[in-house]
Specification:
Blueprint lengths: L3 H5 L7 E4 L6 E8 L3 E16 L5 E9 L8 H8 L11 E7 L1
Antiparallel strand pairs: 1-3, 2-3, 3-4, 4-5
Length: 101
């Protein structure tokens, strides 16, 4: 399995904490629909910070996603996923993702 975050950062990236422009960011995902065919989609990113370690590689990623903007290319599926049975975006409009190392 590859780590897309690690491969997206140049090995010569300057160490420190970097913030992304939310207008330029999306989180992409792929899941299997009932274990059969892959379904891809995107979710808008509202906040993203990447900490680059001394070796120029990612050390930590923190992102906040606006789940209400979920888009799989199927309006019906997206509407179903936003309902309380699955993501409950009316009660929980955001999702946080954090990765260390």
């Amino acid at each position: 399995m590859t780590n897309p975050v690690a491969t997206a950062v140049s090995p010569s990236a300057q160490p420190g904490c970097w913030a992304a422009r939310p207008a330029d960011c999306i989180a992409a995902f792929t899941v299997r629909n009932l274990g059969l065919r892959p379904v891809t989609g995107t979710i808008p990113v509202t906040v993203a910070e990447l900490t680059v370690g001394s070796g120029g590689h990612p050390a930590r990623l923190h992102a906040e996603l606006d789940v209400r903007g979920l888009d799989t290319g199927s309006r019906r599926r997206d509407r179903d996923l936003r309902r309380p049975r699955f993501l409950g975006t009316g009660q929980w409009p955001g999702m946080t993702f954090t990765a260390d190392d």
